[in-house]
Write a structure and sequence with these properties.
Blueprint (H helix, E strand, L loop, with lengths): L1 H12 L15 H7 L9 H18 L1 H8 E9 L2 E4 H9 L5 E10 L5 E10 L4 E10 L5 E10 L25 E4 L23 E5 L5 E8 L3 E10 L2 E10 L6
Parallel strand pairs: 1-6, 3-7
Antiparallel strand pairs: 1-2, 3-4, 4-5, 5-6, 8-9, 9-10, 10-11
Helix pairs in contact: 1-5, 3-4, 4-5
């Protein structure tokens, strides 16, 4: 059935909203503050990380997709096997699915004015599979952020399972979580920002691009052959356009 196929797509897509640091491996507020202290003005990548942390905590208490609806902007899209679909049209079925996951941010890129942000990171789903996700966020009139687009895909092949080689009494030192905060260069007074590089048209028009209102950040998605979900984000930095995020994510194989 078409609906069941879409639900499978959604399951792979909304893992980006599952919970950044509700578990012991998520970054602490102190780590977030240290990692993202140089953001100027209204553009604060730490705000996006904090939003994801808050979502995660609520999701553990109330359910992943119940909370996802609270954090979704009107018209929010999830990118599944058949392309982006409306979250609102699928949310009821998702809330009954019992699906859950954990994730942690690795990078956040923001427009100069802070109105648009793209987060990228790693997830672990309820079956233990890992992969990458990308989520687009837009600042609301009350200065909160809500997500407008979400895509994710499992690693293929999956990395080998970690082997616990510690003995009782061993002291284990873990790496400090790091989050890369990227903020676009603000336009100078009277000097317009050059347009971003031209982009190819997706297959059969299966693509979309969004440019921030201040012209300093562009993100876009494409739905490619074989169910490949492609997403990229570019930002204007020190006089040139730089690719900050680029992902090609496979859809899960149908059983």
């Amino acid at each position: 059935m078409k609906l069941s196929v879409q639900i499978v797509c959604v399951a792979g897509s909304l893992i980006a909203l599952a919970g950044c640091s509700s578990g012991p491996r998520g970054p602490s507020n102190a780590v977030i503050a240290r990692a993202l202290t140089n953001a100027p003005g209204a553009a604060q990548p730490s705000t996006i990380v904090a939003t994801e942390v808050a979502y995660a905590r609520e999701a553990k208490e109330r359910g992943q997709f119940v909370v996802a609806a609270d954090y979704a902007a009107p018209g929010a899209l999830i990118h599944g096997r058949s392309g982006p679909v409306s979250f609102a049209a699928n949310v009821a079925a998702l809330q009954n699915s019992g699906m859950s996951a954990d994730w942690e941010s690795r990078a956040v890129v923001m427009s100069c004015d802070g109105a648009v942000a793209i987060s990228q990171g790693r997830f672990t789903d309820q079956d233990g599979f890992v992969g990458n996700y990308v989520t687009a966020w837009v600042r609301q009139s009350d200065n909160s952020y809500k997500w407008v687009y979400d895509v994710a895909g499992r690693d293929d092949p999956q990395p080998p399972a970690r082997v616990d080689r510690t003995d009782e009494g061993d002291i284990v030192v873990t790496a400090i979580d790091s989050i890369e905060g990227l903020v676009a260069t603000c336009p100078r007074s009277g000097k317009p920002i050059p347009p971003p590089p031209a982009i190819p048209i997706g297959e059969d028009g299966a693509s979309s691009a969004q440019l921030s209102s201040d012209g300093t950040l562009r993100w876009r998605w494409e739905h490619r052959a074989g169910g490949i979900k492609y997403v990229t984000a570019e930002y204007f930095y020190q006089g040139q356009w730089v690719t900050a995020i680029e992902e090609s994510l496979a859809s899960p194989t149908e059983e």
